[in-house]
Amino acid sequence: MSMGRKKIEWVANYMPLLNEIGRLGKPFKGWKIGMAIHMEAKTAYLALTLNKLGAEVIATGCNPLSTQDDVAKALSEMGITVYAKRTHDEKEYLKTIHNVLDHKPDLILDDGADLTVIAHTERTEVLENLKGISEETTTGVRRIKVLQDEGKLKVPVIAVNNARMKHLFDNRYGTGQSTWDSIMRNTNSLIAGKNVVVAGYGWCGRGIAMRAKGLGAHVIITEVDPVKAVEALMDGFEVSNMDRAVEKADIIVTSTGNKDIIKEEHLLKMKDGVILANAGHFNVEIPMEQIEKMAEEKFEARQNVTGYRIKGKRIFVIGEGRLVNLAAADGHPIEIMDLSFALQSFSLMYLSENYKNLENKVYEYPEELDKKVAYMKLKTLGIEIDYLTQSQMDYLKKF
Amino acid sequence: MSMGRKKIEWVANYMPLLNEIGRLGKPFKGWKIGMAIHMEAKTAYLALTLNKLGAEVIATGCNPLSTQDDVAKALSEMGITVYAKRTHDEKEYLKTIHNVLDHKPDLILDDGADLTVIAHTERTEVLENLKGISEETTTGVRRIKVLQDEGKLKVPVIAVNNARMKHLFDNRYGTGQSTWDSIMRNTNSLIAGKNVVVAGYGWCGRGIAMRAKGLGAHVIITEVDPVKAVEALMDGFEVSNMDRAVEKADIIVTSTGNKDIIKEEHLLKMKDGVILANAGHFNVEIPMEQIEKMAEEKFEARQNVTGYRIKGKRIFVIGEGRLVNLAAADGHPIEIMDLSFALQSFSLMYLSENYKNLENKVYEYPEELDKKVAYMKLKTLGIEIDYLTQSQMDYLKKF
Amino acid sequence: MSMGRKKIEWVANYMPLLNEIGRLGKPFKGWKIGMAIHMEAKTAYLALTLNKLGAEVIATGCNPLSTQDDVAKALSEMGITVYAKRTHDEKEYLKTIHNVLDHKPDLILDDGADLTVIAHTERTEVLENLKGISEETTTGVRRIKVLQDEGKLKVPVIAVNNARMKHLFDNRYGTGQSTWDSIMRNTNSLIAGKNVVVAGYGWCGRGIAMRAKGLGAHVIITEVDPVKAVEALMDGFEVSNMDRAVEKADIIVTSTGNKDIIKEEHLLKMKDGVILANAGHFNVEIPMEQIEKMAEEKFEARQNVTGYRIKGKRIFVIGEGRLVNLAAADGHPIEIMDLSFALQSFSLMYLSENYKNLENKVYEYPEELDKKVAYMKLKTLGIEIDYLTQSQMDYLKKF
Amino acid sequence: MSMGRKKIEWVANYMPLLNEIGRLGKPFKGWKIGMAIHMEAKTAYLALTLNKLGAEVIATGCNPLSTQDDVAKALSEMGITVYAKRTHDEKEYLKTIHNVLDHKPDLILDDGADLTVIAHTERTEVLENLKGISEETTTGVRRIKVLQDEGKLKVPVIAVNNARMKHLFDNRYGTGQSTWDSIMRNTNSLIAGKNVVVAGYGWCGRGIAMRAKGLGAHVIITEVDPVKAVEALMDGFEVSNMDRAVEKADIIVTSTGNKDIIKEEHLLKMKDGVILANAGHFNVEIPMEQIEKMAEEKFEARQNVTGYRIKGKRIFVIGEGRLVNLAAADGHPIEIMDLSFALQSFSLMYLSENYKNLENKVYEYPEELDKKVAYMKLKTLGIEIDYLTQSQMDYLKKF
């Protein structure tokens, strides 16, 4: 068996929801689904599942750097039309977006809205056949809302990111675990007893802090929201501004969604040997340009770890300041993506069934489907929960 | 020094925000504030603080059962007009509400909306002088919204419960700790190694579960919301329906906000010696009537603990199924109430300054005051946090 | 039912091992057991259990201050000969020790060795009938070893404190929980977000620190053993010397087994409102004399809490610096004492069966009885564990 | 810079104790140290440190499979005589042991006692110059004690494993972290919400269980010692026999030091997709032979992960049942080995200074050196702890 196929088979072991959804018949029979997603094993298995549900699937990546060619090849051999290639430059990448649209898909599964935006601007002829779009990310939703505000959106869109089963889970449990998986495997450094600074106490930051504590670290939180700062304190963490935190830090993880979290003056205060990792979406939180400029010396310290010498002290950056769990490890754990992709699958089914009654706007993720995914997850685990009785429902209405 | 005064002086030690607010001059000079609140040391100190800020304060309880007469007496000796008495029956209690309104207060601080509702129905003549109302609870807000919907609300109202510094804190950290304080002191029972069932994984349930885990218990969560159930699971708890959970339970704590959480069939499945406690607002979660009916024997097992024998097995209920931290301990920790009462103080100041520009409706708690309380808390702890730079604010707008 | 009896009945609910042991027939038929123990509900139930096993039991306290007269009265009504009284002075207390010895017991259950020492010095005539002694505490064992070293010990003695089921459990899980139970009930103060200093990282300190963390505190450990200090660090705690720790402390708990843990210079550095509690055996860890001497003012701050004003700052001491869980709460949780008393019961049975073959020296607790108690505990919980197969035993011998 | 050298430079960043020890002058000037250790970056840095301290160092591996040739090459280029090679078969490996002995070392640093045993049997001529041996492992110590018991031991030996700074740390914090690092990187599987069975609640098992809990798992402990089983329960874990545990298990980690922990009947009860990993020293805990025999199908599931199909269900074994953190990851975190190697360095210095006064027997690790390493660790972290005063030392003697 090829390595690409092995990778896909492996993730299939831990995607019980997609496995169950794959047994739901052929709801997509006669439908073409175009998708632009990170081309790796987990998404490949989503493509295969949609195919099993009857769809003709045409796929490309949403960023050439995340494309794994062996997976793309295996996927192609398993019946999916695949255009992604890791070596593609920006122009070649955009060409593959057009390749997908050439198939005139009925539904689009988008990650970042490249398919959607190009369909609505350069390739409006494909809108005729397009019935609905399911968008994975916040960034993508924002881009689509611009289309909507300009009155240009021509199909109903479902914002998957806003589903509770997505944003409550992938940030806390997905980022929380995979950030430390990445830091540990890339440094072989002990976490217990270390001073770990986590910048930002949003969902990601909470997950990262919770797991750092679980690994025995002393965790220091920095925040700009005073309410979150008090929460962090009550959760047992030390709270500080970055200026003081950097002086104690052995490891700093940024997860704020903002830029310039670490500033020039902080770089000068750091301890020799400090490790920097970013868990925020964009590589703007650690000031890579500033570091490059200030460094007397730059060297490859370990695989995925770059060393810089600034005023004689060494600073180590994992994965060049990019999202540390993706740039230097395997991304979210499989089971987390299984939840997200179950949401995606139901989103696409919902669109295929209801598109005629939907307006051309961005919809929140349907609450009943959100709960459906949660119930499925519980079922695969053999867990039964309680149900409201009629008299309890009445009581809740009264109070 | 009297016991009542001692109690008030004690809480003053751990209410740094009220202490600081008390130094803000005389913003309420010439204002009369009528309040109906649980008459105990923490609220007494709020009344004294408002008095120190210049207000003439007229106070009664919001429930005779929570009135501590020694505190009421001390408060009265310290310059507050007090009408509350523990022995009051319903009629006498309502009389004290009228007593407060007789003073024609400028502002009302309400806990459950009795002052507000009676002012708007039986005593509308007091509305003339009334400039604003600050309501502590969800229940009170709901009652006031009925007035609003019926077009009867004649003053602006601020819903303090919705402030982040209130609902994010008193449920998790306040209820979380005080529930276990109460269970431990009333039973002298070991928590470590016990099977603790927590019904409901809302803010209260999370707090209770988190602290039970922190005390070494094995925690089982019951829920009706499948998404919260999966969250509980990812947080490391066992998740089950109540039917199976009761068979394992050594201690059951209800915190759902709903009724009939424990049902007849559950009572029959419980282990001999099980301990039941309710941390939900109303005493409807544990089926006291059902228990009384089914019991062969009822006996006082320990102070605040009633024993029942059902089919030969003993079931112990703390505090008669009422809110366990209030009915059988000292309620929320002092510092939690300090946060809430800082919010109340600022709410009243806000109303006194802005009432002319406000509509006669229920307002959300002002975000800037919410943050102000958080910043004050951090300041009393000597903690500095970060601030957004202009370029960071610009970045956030862009993305 | 009398209050004393109610107290005894309550603890009986949570002492499954004593309940089971009470069903083991009449092994003590015809035997007289003299005991000097803290006279409260849990020990009363041990006396009753020994009585149920056939023994004639004659009891007194081991410290008048810990005697609960209502329990003593109830015990006496239930068939035990009781001499303890709370109001006894030292002389009257010693008289009760002689009263017990007057009965010429076959076995002695001692807590601190008063019965043992007096029997071997002033009342040597009782040694003739004495077959064995079971001693609960380290202090008692030390006193008895002095007798042994001087060649005066005339009966076999078993040191119960050294059993794994005792010292591994009562310090960590017993002291850990009951210390916080006491601090919370006596202060109504929030633990979450507080800086809690735990002096000493032995078994007690570990338990106290673990539970403080579980309640949301930021925990700082002080130690004199550098190895334990590094362990504390790896367990995620901050480690510091006392000099720096006191500056941050909101609550300080001592559990070192040594004196002068808090020194004069520390008292001057403390924050206003700091809370001091001692969880070590003797009241020498917090320097009460020094505090009394330095204080400008001393006042009763709350039940069990004394306030001192030193250079204008308030210091609050719970339970006068005595063991905080006993002096100001209900001592160890019931289930912990159940383990200890099961060990005691088996120790006495062992002595009654084997005394003829034992030498007059101090014996370690028999390993097989230690395990027997552990197996019983697991059985009462319905837990089955694994057993070594023959081939596994052989393997272990080989490696 | 060569990859081997880079690896060594990386670990040097996180070995502050070896760095400090390297500055202690030339205590080994004129001394030859022969060592047989796992030839990888961390041990290489130990060899370099001993060399820096003046010693001529001659090194080989203690197991060809753990030899990293790039590190061996770099080490050799940096002035150490190196004989290890990964491709060596048993005979070639033993040859390298003789190669080291050919140098007639003054001191031996052994890991498993191969150098020691061969020196005392086949190469007794080297004993003449040999002054002392420092042995890292329990296994090695056992082998040397056989020599001692047979009266054949001709040099003093220090058992480093028994140092508190070794066995209290590498098992709990080293194995605890690195086991999960390995499982996460090799499976990309979510740990939160999983049922993780940990077989054995010794130091290793505690570390593994503690970290699994910290990652959000529900942890089930199996034990044969009932006392440890009750401890696990009080620590908040579920306790069960293996027979029931396997039915719930998503991941099973063995760490008992015994064989046959998982038996044939257990294999048949496992859930489809279960993951097995061994954290015990020898690969006897997971029954690989039995699995191979029973499997209908065997396949490479992922790098380091072998899949087996038994009665239709898949079982995944990481690292072929060998020590999972070494066979499929990078072994203990660097800082843990820094502690161990600081102990080794001081052990060798102690032998070089005191060998004339030592007997030819196995010595426990000297307490003062154990504490010295702990103090050094604290010092590198800038942590000061307390010291006993004279009056405190006197007090401790008295009680």
UniProtKB/TrEMBL annotation, chains A, B, C, D:
Name this polypeptide is given: Adenosylhomocysteinase
S-adenosyl-L-homocysteine hydrolase NAD binding domain residues: 171-331
Keyword Hydrolase: yes
SUPFAM superfamilies: Formate/glycerate dehydrogenase catalytic domain-like (SSF52283), NAD(P)-binding Rossmann-fold domains (SSF51735)
CDD domains reported in the protein's UniProt record: SAHH
Keyword set, alphabetical order: Hydrolase, NAD, One-carbon metabolism
MF GO annotations: hydrolase activity
Catalysed reactions, semicolon-separated: S-adenosyl-L-homocysteine + H2O = L-homocysteine + adenosine
Family: Belongs to the adenosylhomocysteinase family.
Required co-factors: NAD(+)
